[in-house]
Amino acid sequence: MEKPKPVTQAAKILALAAVVLLVCVPFLVILSTSLASQREVIANGGWVLWPREPTLKAYEDILDGGIVTQALGVSAGVTVIGTLLSLACTVTLAYALSRPGVFGGKPVLLLVLFTFLFPPGMIPSFLLVKELGLLDSYTSLVLPVLVNVFNLVVLRGFFQGIPEELYEAARLDGAGDWRVLWSVVLPLSKAALAVVGLFYAVAYWNSWFYASLYLESDHWPLQQVLRTYVVAGSGITDTTTGEATVNAPQTVQMAVLVIATVPILLVYPFLQKYFTKGVLTGAIKS
Questions:
Q1: Which among 284, 68, 255 has a CA at the least distance from the CA of 158?
Q2: Is the separation of the CB atoms in 205 and 225 below 8 Å?
Q3: Rounded distance, CA 194 to CA 188, Å?
Q4: pTM for this structure?
Q5: What gap in Å lies between CA 224 and CA 205, rounded to an integer?
Q6: 94 by DSSP, 3-state: which?
Q7: Rounded to an integer, what distance in angstroms lies between the CA atom of residue 41 and that of residue 58?
Q8: Which region holds residue 176: left if phi is over 0, alpha if psi is between -120 and 50, else beta?
Q9: What is d(CA 70, CA 215) in angstroms, rounded to the nearest whole number?
Q10: In the chain, where does DSSP find H-type helix?
Q11: Which residues pair with 48 in a beta bridge?
């Protein structure tokens, strides 16, 4: 418990500064390259640390009613709707499994944990989605991953940590299960709900694999467009005109990358304070 020595403090500051630079500099290069002009990008070999002639031409090209605009809407819709549905299903199932004496509670819990240890393979999942008639449907991006076992265990542990006296007091007041969940459990679980909701939102927003399996290219979300254009190096074609983008490839790629990254970066700081209380409390109790 003694005060750290100046050398130790200096080493911590240097280490923290190095980590910050490792995180921030690549993102700064990506943002700067997306704002640079075509001439400047070519002159600097494809990467720009600080643009001398900043322009929004790359963003105008990809957001002018093309495939990126459509993909952005798809990702936003799937993320919002999927997160709400996943939270609703996870909360209700976690509450049922957290209460003692629930009929079939232990077998259902073991079944859920079994899926965590032995996840389904790609081919069985594809065949199931196909038999359900969900191919080329946005439902295929939500329904197979509606409940995440880790998030379920965290919420179940958090609900078990709520004092039993509160449940008993609500029962004495005549509250049923739904009333207890809505009026007692959920208000006390804001931290866990915020963290689990962020986990679901990030998973839906970053999901591209299921889109590549189940959806046609005109229904792709943003992350699949990003993977196809940036990683695979394929061109982006405007869905309204059928013409390929004419801007510098590197600037357009970096602009798509920024658009795909910024929404989560904007949400995370508001939920960061809930992480320790929301995740650790539920995990330790479990």
A1: 284
A2: no
A3: 12
A4: 0.81
A5: 10
A6: helix
A7: 12
A8: beta
A9: 14
A10: 6-35, 38-43, 57-63, 67-98, 105-117, 122-131, 149-160, 164-172, 177-180, 186-188, 190-206, 209-214, 222-226, 249-271, 275, 281-285
A11: none
CB-CB contact of 200 with 86 (8 Å): yes
Q: What is the pLDDT along the chain (286 residues), one digit of tens a residue?
A: 577 778 888 899 999 999 999 988 888 888 888 888 877 877 777 778 888 888 888 888 777 767 888 888 899 999 999 999 999 999 999 999 888 878 888 888 888 888 888 887 888 888 988 898 888 889 989 998 899 998 998 888 888 888 888 888 888 888 888 888 888 888 888 888 888 998 899 999 988 888 888 888 778 888 888 887 776 655 555 544 445 444 447 788 888 888 888 888 888 777 766 665 555 554 444 4
CA 57 – CA 147 distance, rounded (Å): 41
Q: Quick one: tokens of 242?
A: 């059928």
**Is residue 173 within 8 Å of residue 259, measured between CB atoms?**
no
Per-residue tokens: 236: 């982006």
